[in-house]
User: Which sequence fits this backbone?
C-alpha cells in the first residue's frame, strides 16, 4: 500500500515539476538572450541555438524552485483534502508520507550539482562557439545597424565604418580606435580594408588587410602613412572567461597553474612584456650614454640590426622611443654581409610583444634615407628581432607568471621600475588573488547550493502541510524565504572572498552557515509537524 501511495505522490510531484520547469526555463532563457541579441545582433538561427545552450544555466536555478513549488502545492493539496489525515489514521507517519518529496529533493540536488559542475560549462562553450561561427556576420550586422563594432570583452577597441559589404568581407571608410585607461592609444584610418576573423579556443584575432592607411598614436601629434599590409588586434572571450563557467577538473588545473586562466595569463604576458621593455630600455640607455658612437645590436632569424640614437625612453606600454638622430645599419645574419645604412631625423620606436613566453622585438623607422642610394623610405620596419641572450637568461630564469609578479623587478632592472610596470604588477597580483579566491568560493557555493536544495524543498513540503487551511501560494512564498537566506549567504561569502575580508575560511563559513540555517529550520518545521 505504501509503495502505491508513494508512487502516486511522486507522480503528482513530477507533473508539477515538469510543467513549472518548462515554463520558467523558457521565460528565463529568453531573458538571458537579451544581452547577446543586443550586444552582437544575433539572428534568428543563433537565437534558437543560444536558447538551447543557455538552458542548462537556467535549469540550475529553475529546478530547485520548481521542486519547491511542487512540494508546497502537492502536499498542501493533499493536506487540505484531508488525504494526509486519512493516511495517518491508517498508521502511516508523516515522515513516511514525505519519502517521495525527499527522493525528489535528493534528485534535484544531484541534478543541480551535475548541471553546475559538468553540464553548464560545456554548453557555455558551445554558445560561444555558435557566436564565433557567425562572428563575421555579427560584425557586419553590427556595423550596418550601428555603424560601429566594439571588440569584447572590454570594448576598448572600436571599428567605425561608413559602409559594410558582407559579400566581399570589405569595410569602407574605416576609423579604428584603440583606447586604454589613460585615454586613446592609437587611431587608424583607411579607405577600405578586408576583414578576417581568426578564432581560436583561448583567444581571438581581428585581421584587417588595409589600403591607404594612416595612423596616429596617443603620444604623437602628427599622422603618418602606413604601407598597405595587415593589421591585427587580439581580443578575448565573446561571452567572458569566468571561473563560474569552468568544470571542476578545469578549476583544479587552474588552481595548479593560473596561466591556464586567460584573464590572468593576458595580464601576466603584458606585465612580462613591459618588464622586458624596461630591461631593454635600461640596457640601451646605458649603452648610448657610455658609448655614444658604438652601435647597439639586435638579431633576428635573417637580419641583424645595429643602431644608435641620441637617447631612449619608455613612452608607452611595450614601446621604447629612440630620439633622433637615429641611424640603423642592416646586416645579413647568416653571412654577416653588410646590406645598407638608414638615417632618420624622426623619432623611431622599438616595440616589444610576448608570444608563447618568447619576447618578439620590432623596430619602426619613419622618414628614413638610405645613405648608399639617397632613397627615401617613408616607413621601415623589422618585426622578427629577439632580445640579447643575457636578457633572455634573466627573464627565463623563472616561469613567466613568477617573473611577472615578482617583487624584485628593481634588482633585475638595476633601478626603480616605472609607475606603469608597478601598476601592472599590482593589477596582476590582484587578478591572481581574485582568481584563487573565486576558485575556492565557486567550489563551496556549488556544494552549498546543491546540498541546500534538499532542506529547502523539505521546508516547502512541511509549510505546505502546515498551511493546509490557508492559501497554498503563501506556503510557497514562505518557503522561498529560507532559499533567499541561502542565496544571500552564498553571495555574501563570494563577496567576502573577492574583497579579502576575513580570508577564504571565513567566506566558506558564511556559505555553510546559510546551509546550517536551512537544516535547523527543517528540523524545527518537521518537529512541529510531528506534534500536530
Assistant:
Amino acid at each position: 500500500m505504501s509503495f502505491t501511495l508513494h508512487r502516486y505522490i511522486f507522480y503528482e510531484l513530477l507533473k508539477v515539476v515538469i510543467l513549472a520547469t518548462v515554463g520558467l526555463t523558457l521565460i528565463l532563457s529568453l531573458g538571458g538572450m537579451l544581452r547577446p541579441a543586443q550586444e552582437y545582433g544575433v539572428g534568428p538561427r543563433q537565437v534558437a541555438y543560444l536558447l538551447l545552450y543557455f538552458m542548462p544555466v537556467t535549469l540550475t536555478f529553475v529546478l530547485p524552485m520548481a521542486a519547491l513549488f511542487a512540494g508546497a502545492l502537492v502536499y498542501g493539496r493533499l493536506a487540505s483534502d484531508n488525504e494526509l489525515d486519512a493516511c495517518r489514521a491508517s498508521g502511516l507517519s508523516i515522515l513516511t508520507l514525505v519519502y517521495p518529496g525527499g527522493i525528489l529533493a535528493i534528485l534535484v540536488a544531484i541534478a543541480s550539482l551535475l548541471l553546475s559542475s559538468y553540464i553548464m560549462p560545456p554548453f557555455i562553450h558551445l554558445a560561444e562557439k555558435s557566436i564565433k561561427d557567425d562572428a563575421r556576420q555579427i560584425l557586419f550586422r553590427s556595423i550596418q545597424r550601428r555603424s560601429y563594432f566594439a571588440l569584447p570583452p572590454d570594448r576598448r577597441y572600436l571599428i567605425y565604418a561608413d559602409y559594410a559589404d558582407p559579400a566581399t568581407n570589405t569595410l569602407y571608410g574605416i576609423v579604428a580606435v584603440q583606447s586604454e585607461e589613460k585615454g586613446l592609444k592609437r587611431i587608424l584610418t583607411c579607405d577600405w580594408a578586408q576583414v578576417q576573423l581568426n578564432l581560436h579556443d583561448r583567444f581571438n584575432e581581428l585581421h584587417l588587410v588595409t589600403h591607404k592607411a594612416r595612423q596616429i598614436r596617443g603620444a604623437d601629434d602628427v599622422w603618418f602613412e602606413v604601407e598597405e599590409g595587415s593589421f591585427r588586434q587580439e581580443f578575448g572571450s565573446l561571452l567572458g572567461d569566468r571561473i563560474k563557467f569552468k568544470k571542476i577538473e578545469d578549476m583544479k588545473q587552474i588552481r595548479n597553474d593560473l596561466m591556464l586562466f586567460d584573464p590572468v595569463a593576458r595580464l601576466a604576458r603584458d606585465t612580462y612584456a613591459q618588464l622586458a621593455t624596461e630591461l631593454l630600455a635600461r640596457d640601451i640607455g646605458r649603452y648610448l650614454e657610455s658609448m655614444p658612437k658604438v652601435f647597439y645590436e639586435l638579431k633576428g632569424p635573417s637580419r641583424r640590426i645595429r643602431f644608435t640614437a641620441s637617447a631612449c625612453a619608455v613612452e608607452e606600454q611595450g614601446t621604447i622611443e629612440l630620439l633622433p638622430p637615429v641611424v640603423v645599419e642592416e646586416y645579413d645574419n647568416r653571412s654577416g654581409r653588410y646590406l645598407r645604412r638608414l638615417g632618420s631625423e624622426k623619432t623611431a620606436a622599438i616595440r616589444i610583444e610576448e608570444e608563447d613566453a618568447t619576447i618578439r622585438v620590432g623596430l619602426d623607422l619613419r622618414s628614413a634615407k638610405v645613405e648608399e642610394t639617397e632613397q627615401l623610405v617613408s616607413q621601415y620596419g623589422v618585426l622578427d628581432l629577439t632580445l640579447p641572450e643575457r636578457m633572455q637568461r634573466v627573464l627565463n630564469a623563472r616561469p613567466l607568471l613568477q617573473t611577472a609578479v615578482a617583487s624584485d623587478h628593481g634588482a633585475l632592472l638595476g633601478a626603480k621600475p616605472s609607475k606603469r610596470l608597478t601598476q601592472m604588477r599590482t593589477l596582476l597580483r590582484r587578478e591572481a588573488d581574485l582568481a584563487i579566491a573565486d576558485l575556492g568560493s565557486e567550489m563551496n557555493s556549488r556544494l552549498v547550493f546543491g546540498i541546500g536544495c534538499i532542506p529547502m524543498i523539505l521546508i516547502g513540503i512541511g509549510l505546505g502541510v502546515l498551511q493546509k487551511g490557508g492559501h497554498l501560494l503563501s506556503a510557497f512564498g514562505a518557503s522561498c524565504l529560507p532559499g533567499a537566506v541561502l542565496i544571500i549567504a552564498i553571495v555574501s561569502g563570494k563577496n567576502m572572498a573577492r574583497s579579502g575580508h576575513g580570508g577564504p575560511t571565513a567566506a566558506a563559513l558564511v556559505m555553510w552557515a546559510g546551509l546550517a540555517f536551512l537544516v535547523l529550520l527543517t528540523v524545527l518545521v518537521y518537529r512541529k509537524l510531528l506534534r500536530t
